[in-house]
Amino acid sequence: MHEALRIEGRGPVAMALALFLSRQGFDPASMLCEPAAGEPPAWLASRSLALSLGSWQLLSRIVALPPAAPIVTVEVSLRGHAGRTRMQASDLRAPALGYVLRYGMLHRALAAALAPLRPSMPDAHDSAHAEPLTVVADGDPGAGSRVHDFDQTALLAEIVAERDARGTAFERFTDEGPLALLPLPEAHRHALVWCARPVQSERRAGLDAHAFEAELRTAFGGALGMLHLHGDRVLAPLQRRVRAHDGDARCIAIGNAAQALHPVAGQGLNLGLRDAFELAQQLGELRAAGRPLVEAVAHYRRRRRTDRGVAVALTDTLARAFTLPAIARFESAALGALDLFAPARDGLAATLMFGLRTR
Ligand SMILES: Cc1cc2nc3c(=O)[nH]c(=O)nc-3n(C[C@H](O)[C@H](O)[C@H](O)COP(=O)(O)OP(=O)(O)OC[C@H]3O[C@@H](n4cnc5c(N)ncnc54)[C@H](O)[C@@H]3O)c2cc1C
User: Fold this and answer.
1) Which of 34, 43, 49 is the best mutation target for the ligand 1 pocket, counting ligand atoms within 8 Å of the beta carbon and taking the most?
2) Cβ of residue 42 lying under 6 Å from some atom of ligand 1
3) Which residue, 87, 126, 253, 265, is the most exposed by fewest CB within 10 angstroms?
């Protein structure tokens, strides 16, 4: 019987960790897990997630890949300014820069892959195992976390566009905050993530569909023709929360339990999947060498510091910088320059595509 390991949480990062561990040869009977979650609530199931190519490749190792829309082009622009940059998968000789799917579809794919292992997995709160190494993946950085409030609320909705722009994701930096339209698997369908001051987002959520569509068209421009609202609008207040270093020698936090980021750069789950993958690799190596799993704690924290730091800094910079009118001109020039200076742009794209994985 292998040394036991407890996994707290029922979200995608907790499930991915169990599957990566299984690939490392961990016996399901040694993984103490929370009972399977049912379908996520509707507001969460419909949330769109942009996953990087690197995440997509990681997922392909553990699940039958769910329906998703490939992103082959990202158009980044500043509203009212000339600067615009375009990232293309072909420039990087990649099949896609990333993929967009719904949270519910990802949940279903992970749950199906885990189903055969579930009957052998003991309950996470089984007290027969004295003090196992605990991995916290419950999506909550905890009460003592360091919080940065961006004073922004994201308005999420699905949009049906007159023009089909399959494969293209749009990111507009408006005076109020970033507005993204991401392609969804169905033709003409896009996921809207529109960040603005809470009072603005709340007002827009309360507009009738016609008035909302008109305001969206003004903010986004005419690239997709007429834009129609499909279904409900959901509001998500935006904060960045990073878990305070707890110093607990038997506990590792991963995914949103370690860091919950602003969604502007779509990095949260990408970082969480890398957390799960790297941790499973390290635990697999320790187990193969016959060493105690708890040795992973310090090693893991050291190894993941850079990737986490880069993702937090990049996300914060994007969330903050583009909302300040005073520097908008400079940013406009910077975006234009980025388009001319391909290596810088490709470096940014590569970081967004793969993050900083150490293997
Ligand atoms: C508006 C918004 C947009 C985002 N867009 C992106 C993006 O484009 N790309 C990206 O990489 N990240 C994005 N993120 C971040 C991403 O959603 C999180 O990083 C990711 O979900 C973290 O996974 P997790 O397992 O650590 O935590 P969570 O997904 O928060 O899950 C943790 C907890 O949620 C609850 N839960 C989860 N599933 C269920 C269920 N089926 N039933 C009941 N409860 C459940 C459980 O309590 C679970 O322990 C976005 C976040 C927000 C708020």
Assistant:
1) 49
2) no
3) 126
Binned at pLDDT 50, 70 and 90, residue 277 comes out as very high
Our separate counts of H helices and E strands in the chain read 10, 15
The DSSP output letter for 201 is H
According to DSSP, the residues that pair with 179 across neighbouring strands are 172, 194
Q: Mean pLDDT of all residues in the chain?
A: 85
Determine the pLDDT at residue 249: 82
In whole angstroms, give the CA distance from residue 11 to residue 198.
Answer: 27
Ligand 1 centroid from CA 226, angstroms: 31
**Residue 172 in contact with ligand 1 by CB distance below 6 A:** no
* Domains (range + CATH), the chain: 5-69+99-145+241-324 (3.50.50.60)
| Phi, psi values for residue 180, rounded to 5° | -120, 140
Return the ∠ at Cα 283 (arms to 277 and 288), rounded to 5°: 125
Ligand 1 nearest-atom number relative to CA 193:
1
Report pLDDT digits (tens) over 109-165: 999 999 999 999 998 877 666 678 999 999 999 888 888 888 888 899 999 999 999
Instruction: Tokens for 197, please give them.
Output: 């001051």
- Tokens encoding 236: 């998500």
**96-119 residues labelled b (16+ CB within 10 A) or e (exposed):** bbbbbbbbbbbbbbbbebbeebee
User: What's the pLDDT tens digit per position in 279-326?
Assistant: 999 999 999 999 999 999 888 888 888 878 887 877 777 666 555 444
Q: Is 264 in the pocket of ligand 1 (CB under 6 A)?
A: no
Which H/E stretch holds residue 133? strand 133-136
- Report the alpha-carbon distance of residue 297 to residue 74 in Å, rounded: 37
Q: Is 46 in the pocket of ligand 1 (CB under 6 A)?
A: no
